[in-house]
Amino acid sequence: MIVAVVGPTATGKSDLALDLAEALSGPRAPAEIVNADAFQLYRGMDVGTAKVPPAERRGIVHHQLDVLDPTQDASVAHYQAAARADLDAIAARGARAVVVGGSGLYVRALLDEMNFPGTDPQVRARLEGRAETEGRRALHAELVRRDPDAAASIGPENTRRLVRALEVIEITGQPFTANLPRQEYVRLAVQIGLDCDRPTLDARVAGRVDRMWSAGLVDEVRSLASPAQGGTGAGLGTTAARAVGYAELLRWFAGDLTEDAAREAVVTDTRRLARKQMGWFGRDPRVQWLDAGSPTLLADALAVVRAADAETLPAPEDRPVRRSLGS
Q1: What is the pLDDT of residues 185-204, one digit of tens each?
Q2: What mean pLDDT is reported for the chain?
Q3: Fewer CB within 10 A of the terminal residue: the chain, N end or C end?
Q4: CA-based angle 29:32:38, to the nearest 5?
Q5: Residue/partner pairs of 242-245 with CB below 8 Å, 24 or more apart
Q6: How far is residue 89 from each of residues 65, 71, 92, 97, 286, measured CA to CA in Å?
């Protein structure tokens, strides 16, 4: 049974994941943590992503941290393959995997049935050409014929998604909707969500930003950004440069914001991110929510895990009967 700790930023997911990993470790198979935060994949992006420092990881093995350079663009499909390989290896060692992160798409890609059809430049170019010559509504009409459910969710004005849907249909021979994510675990899992009331979460976010500033966030971003981005490093790629805490400082370095305005923007954007994350995970009925501020949080989380474990055990009548040597 995989244990996943999810929810909004600044709710203490990393701390709970460490506590759970310690509590769920066996004498021969210590639990291991698998990261599901898109920006903690990046080397050097430590302070701004609230990455747990190596010295504070309590000797627990962590996976999917520091696997990309900031100049690289992250890929959900690549993450899915690499992180699922980690889960396979952890299971082969007889250990428990504890997944932790607030990137909803990455959590879904890791735990749920989600396929990533490839692309075909020739098919895409032909469809884009048709959009130019025949118009978007012609593509939408074709999608209505070939996949009515997809057409109902993709409006006739969205050329990019129309082209992608028809491309997937042509490549796979299946409806586009057949490749959309489904809330179906590919491995046994239980999701524990952390949340708290909005005023408390807003205060937590403000406190986190204060700590990041004190811990050297400005120097970190400057050391990663290229000279053209106002820094001294190799540069932040398209994906990394969008991370909250980094995007705002890059605007400050570019002269678009003052330092005070950049700092306030980090607070505002982090709060916005937390609400977006809550909306994402809140739509998943499988998440079992706990109060992030509960004094019995670890005990509450362990109760959820044990209940989930118990549900996976065979019924008593189905279990093998143990006989003594003398019977």
Answers
A1: 999 999 999 999 999 999 99
A2: 93
A3: C
A4: 165
A5: 243/39, 243/45, 243/48, 243/49, 244/48, 244/269, 244/270, 244/273, 245/48, 245/49, 245/209, 245/212, 245/217, 245/221, 245/270
A6: 16, 28, 5, 10, 25
- Taking only the tens place, the pLDDT of each residue in 294-306 is 999 999 999 999 9
Burial 204-221 (b: 16+ CB within 10 A, else e): bbbebbeebeeeebbebb
Residue owning tokens 């403000």: 206
pLDDT at 153: 86
Q: What are the C-alpha distances in Å from 24 to residues 51, 188, 299? A: 22, 16, 12
User: Is 291 strand, coil or helix?
Assistant: strand
Q: What is the pTM of this model?
A: 0.86
CA dihedral 220, 226, 229, 231 (to 10 degrees): 40
Instruction: Specify whether the CB–CB gap between 101 and 35 falls below 8 A.
Output: yes
Token pair 């019924």: residue: 315
CA pair distance 52, 33, nearest whole angstrom: 12
Q: Is residue 165 within 8 Å of 146, Cβ to Cβ?
A: no
Kind of pairing between the strands at 112-113 and 182-185: antiparallel
